[in-house]
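Notebook entry, cofactor series.
This is the third protein in the set we're modelling with a bound small molecule. For this one the ligand is flavin-adenine dinucleotide. I'm keeping the input format identical across the series so the outputs can be compared line by line later. Sequence and SMILES below, as received.
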Amino acid sequence: MQPITLTDEQRAFRESMRSFAEERIAPRAAEVDRNGVFPWDNFKDCVSMDLPGLGLGPEYGGSGADHVTQAIMVEELARVCGSTSLMMAITGLATKPISNFGSAETKARYLPRIANGDSQGSYCLSEADAGSDVAAMTCRAVRDGDSYVLNGSKHWITNAGVSDVYVVFAKTDPAAGARGVSAFVVERDHGLRIGKLETKLGMHGSPTGEVILDDVRVPAENRLGEEGEGFKIAMHTLDRSRPSIAAQAVGIAQGALDYAVGYTKQRKAFGHPIAEFQGLQFMMADMAMRTEAARLLTYRACAIIDEGDPDGELSAAGATAKCTAGDTAMAVTVDAVQLLGGVGYTTDFPLERYMRDAKITQIYEGTNQIQRVVVARSLLK
Ligand SMILES: Cc1cc2nc3c(=O)[nH]c(=O)nc-3n(C[C@H](O)[C@H](O)[C@H](O)COP(=O)(O)OP(=O)(O)OC[C@H]3O[C@@H](n4cnc5c(N)ncnc54)[C@H](O)[C@@H]3O)c2cc1C
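Returned structure with ligand:
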């Protein structure tokens, strides 16, 4: 493992992302949360910065950036607007199975249009009765000549309705359990429908909903990998995507901490800025230490991906980063609200939004209980 220090290029990228996020994304963050609609202006601004293609190869119109750089992008967006960070994180989640398991034709068909912002992607693994236990999925794919016919429904799908490219996991051999799952790229134009959209605690600018497959016919060439490789593809993808969720959690924690520190310098009580009270200084020091520790674990997991995971430690490292960062974001945002006192509890100040947005980082891409299962398994193998 290389030591975790950023290169000059990564530092410069963080600086440009910080300015972009503060100037273009932050001013709309409260409104995005209040309106609860997908922020197309933010998406267009991200496209103008070439962010959807950041992790995609230059042959597809991307920048081919390493995973640490991709984490910095998500982190800096999350520092100002959780929903906008999620639209970029989900692009990574949806494109990874195509990049890593798609045929040359499939990659050429879908990746360039996602890189240039013409298309967006979703990742459809979960079902109503198959979340943590994804192998219990019932969505079916049946081969019929040169195509597959898909039936079933996927739940909790981020970017549902906004995306036009959906990576869908379905069973081609239900009797084979996890080994009977296959993965497909399904276009909205193949006939996929969007069902109920959820009303959520946070991430209000990111639609989450049901994706319905009702006799949807998909060309056989849209299968990713071989029949029966779907579960492996899903896990391979999550191992490489969880560090992005960790980065999102780190960004949320950092944004909440920065805001709270600024507030304590202005707000006076008992004739002093409240920042002078050691009880609050210790709280802020703990928040900063936890956030920095989570950041280092996140960059370490990213560096392992970039090195090709030579020692087979990525699953545990990604789970460690995601779990630590998610728990940190939750704890830090709760304390940040506390540092503001009464106004922290109001929508006039941004910290209740950070607290609501933080919660999901403990749940999606595998709950933090499931991350602990992954870490424990690595100890016991
Ligand atoms: C806003 C949002 C966006 C999402 N986006 C997507 C998406 O884009 N694509 C997608 O496929 N999915 C998505 N999801 C689904 C998400 O990944 C699942 O909600 C998550 O994996 C948990 O599954 P579940 O909700 O079925 O909970 P359950 O599996 O029912 O879990 C309920 C509780 O039981 C615990 N539990 C379950 N099994 C164990 C165990 N073995 N040991 C200990 N505890 C356990 C869990 O930790 C949890 O506390 C999203 C969810 C939300 C809320």
